[in-house]
Amino acid sequence: MHKDKKASMTTSCIKGMRDIRSLSGQKPWLVLGRAVTAIALTYLYTIVTAAILDRLTTGAPLEQVLTVAGLGLSAILLVSLISHVLERRDLILDAGILRIYRSRKSRKLTELPYERLESVDTRETLSRMHMQESIGFGLSALIRHFNTLVKALLSIAVSLVMLAVLLVQAGKGPLDYVWMLLFGLATTLLSLGAAFGIKRANDASMRAIQSIFPPHIILNDYLTSGGGIRYQDGKDIRFYQYRPQIETVYGDAVKEMRRFDRAGGTIPALAAGLGGAVRGLTLGASYLFVLLIWNIGYQDLGWALVLASALYQLSASMAGAAGVLSQCGAAADSVHAYMRFTEPVPASHAPASRPAPAVPGGESETMLAVKALSFQYPGAEKETLQDISFTIPRGGRIALVGANGSGKTTLVKLLCGLYPPGAGRILLEGRDVSKWPSEEYGSRFSVVFQDFKLFSFSLGETVASASAYDRERVTKALGQAGLNDRLATLPDGLETYLYKDFADGIEFSGGEAQKTALARALYRDAPILVLDEPTAALDPLAEAEIYDRINRLSRDTTILFVSHRMSACRFCDEILVLSEGKLIQQGCHEELLAQEGPYRAMWEAQAQYYTDDVGESVS
Q1: Which of 44, 142, 294, 386 is the most buried (most CB within 10 A)?
Q2: Looking at the DSSP assignment, which residues form a beta bridge with residue 532?
């Protein structure tokens, strides 16, 4: 069992070294260089002091003492200079490595299939990685532990060589060799025992940490990693007096983390104290040893000090290696898990594009076809969508309506390729979604999602989703979305930044943000425009204006309106009514109004909002 643990720990450290090397091939050489210069400096100070002391005690000429001192100090200066240069280069390299390491997560989140991105498993994985970094298991910790481990192991090797040479030189007879070797062996065994105890303590700490890892890992990460409270949340917190409730939740998280921190801190602290005590004992014993060999007639007092220093360095290095070995293995495991998670998503192996079946007149008349489509979220008790079938003609205006929770947004995600169909088929231009390369399929859609996100870029960059953009097209898209008047008031026009995350930008209202998201979709100019609750933040008059603008778009654009509000239905060729994941009605506005059913009930309930000032229905 012990051998298995040792092999596992060694394997983890090797994997950690490989992960560091994959981020920068220079890093291992800089670590080795820093270790060599640090050890060289440690022994140079002692050796130069010893050489000067020996010449002073033996009555050597002053010129010889000064020459030795000058050469020694020159060597120390040179090695120190090299050490500082390597340290500076290493710090700069570490900053770059950390940026690359952390940017891998952002890149992976943009590549990850959407169904995996939304999954609880992915969120828990991310939260666990954040938590591990916060308690010292991330790349920064691995680099620090790896530096310490390499230096300690190299120092052990150098110290053993120094001890072997110096002990042989110190002996005057066979008996001297025996007792000096016994003293060195006893010191080494004491250091090894302390090192073993330190390692066992750290291993126990790692096991304790894993056994009580916070069960509500996502909540803890949300509250403690900086993502819990945003500046935008301040209004609601103050107005609705959320502070006591938030403090209660934070308090519970802090209590849980304190228990977690104690498990990871108390035992290693005791082990570190043991290591310090052993190092102090070894240092005292080493200088006692110097006095003993001086007493038996060994004249080179300076080299006796070097011998004492080598004994102390051996003890300190063993304790240091043992103290960091478990942490290095644990940090390496967490980094390796991070690196595996953030590996690039393999390129799509979808078959090459094949032309869709042609119909008389050239292009397929059907833009989208849904056949017996069903879908169930992982872990859900029942299907969100059940056996849905319909077709959308090229250039058609289709409304998808239903109460909240009826499955509209899930259907939109499936149509846009964010989720693979659970059962049934989706065909775009006559070709099954599985036979489209994902990027090519996605490029056929412009979408305004219900929970859209605008990033803190300039308005022009936001609409174009790019740093370089066509100003005329952006201005046209903003005009189609009804933002011309607002654009005229912006201090820097299209260069005005949104929000205050990265610059002193403007705060758009909900309606203005929604219109900006619509402009972004219009700028893309894809053949299918999907609007998922595109006017939820608008009043009825502004909503009617937006729908009128959208309806004027070319018939080359197929439009799918998704809403639980009925105003879009007047413009549509066909209406699909969803209820509890089922398609329960289908037809044009007049046909559905003539039938008893959910559509007519929803329309009559909302009709008051679609009546003009003189009381005439605009339906």
Answers
A1: 142
A2: 562
Dig out the tokens for 343 from the structure.
């590996």
Which residues are CB-contacts of 443 (< 8 A; sequence separation ≥ 6)? Answer: 526
- Give CB contacts under 8 A, 24+ apart, made by 209-213: 209/135, 209/260, 209/263, 209/264, 211/263, 212/259, 212/260, 212/263, 213/128, 213/131, 213/260
Q: Which CATH architecture has domain 2-341?
A: Up-down Bundle (1.20)
Instruction: Decide if 524 contacts 466 (C-beta within 8 A).
Output: no
Q: Tell which residue, 334, 307, 291, has the closest CA to residue 142.
A: 334
Please identify which residue in the block is written with the tokens 């891998």: 104
Q: What is the pLDDT confidence band of residue 615, given thresholds at 50, 70 and 90?
A: very low
Phi first, then psi: give them for residue 244, nearest 5 degrees: -60, -40
Q: Which amino acid is at 104?
A: R
DSSP state at residue 225: S
Residue with tokens 């360095």: 313
Q: In 436-557, where do the E strands start and end?
A: 445-448, 528-532
> CA-CA distance, 421 to 427, in Å (whole number)?
11
Using CA atoms, how far residue 96 sits from 27, 33, 227, 313, in Å, is 11, 19, 24, 33
Nearest one of 432, 426, 433, 610 to 535, comparing CA atoms = 610
- C-alpha 107/C-alpha 101 separation (Å) is 10
pLDDT digits (tens, 9 = 90+) for 61-97: 888 888 888 898 999 899 999 989 988 888 888 888 8
Q: Decide whether 2-341 matches 448-579 in CATH topology.
A: no
DSSP 458: B
- How far, CA to CA in Å, does 482 sit from each of 277, 303, 450, 466? 75, 87, 18, 21
Q: Give the span between the Cα atoms of 464 and 473, in whole angstroms.
A: 9
Task: Assign 349 to helix, strand or coil.
Answer: coil
Three-class SS state of 477: helix
Tokens of 329: 């293995």
Rg (CA), the chain: 36
How far from 476 is each of 463, 472, 481, 524, CA to CA, in Å? Answer: 11, 6, 9, 12
Fold of 448-579: Rossmann fold (3.40.50)
- Tokens representing 141 are 């910790």
Instruction: Specify which residues 528 forms β-bridges with.
Output: 445, 558
Strand 558-563 and strand 397-401: the pairing is parallel
- pLDDT digit string (tens) for 484-533? 888 888 888 888 888 776 667 788 887 888 888 888 888 888 899 998 87
d(CA 501, CA 513): 16
On the 0-12 / 13-18 / 19+ scale of CB atoms within 10 A, 37 is: buried
Cα separation, 321 vs 78, in Å, equals 28
β-strand 528-532 against 558-563: which pairing, if any? parallel
What are the pLDDT digits (tens) for 418-445? Answer: 888 888 899 998 888 888 887 788 888 9
Find, among 560, 570, 613, the residue nearest to 593 by Cα: 570
Q: So where are the chain's domains?
A: 2-341, 448-579
Dihedral sign, CA of 270, 276, 280, 286? positive
Q: What is the DSSP letter of 498?
A: B
- Distance CA(223)–CA(218), nearest Å, equals 9
367 vs 527: CA distance, rounded Å:
9
Could you tell me the pTM of the whole model? 0.60
Q: Count CA atoms within 13 Å of residue 85 on its CB side.
A: 7
Bridging pattern class, strands 397-401 and 574-579: parallel
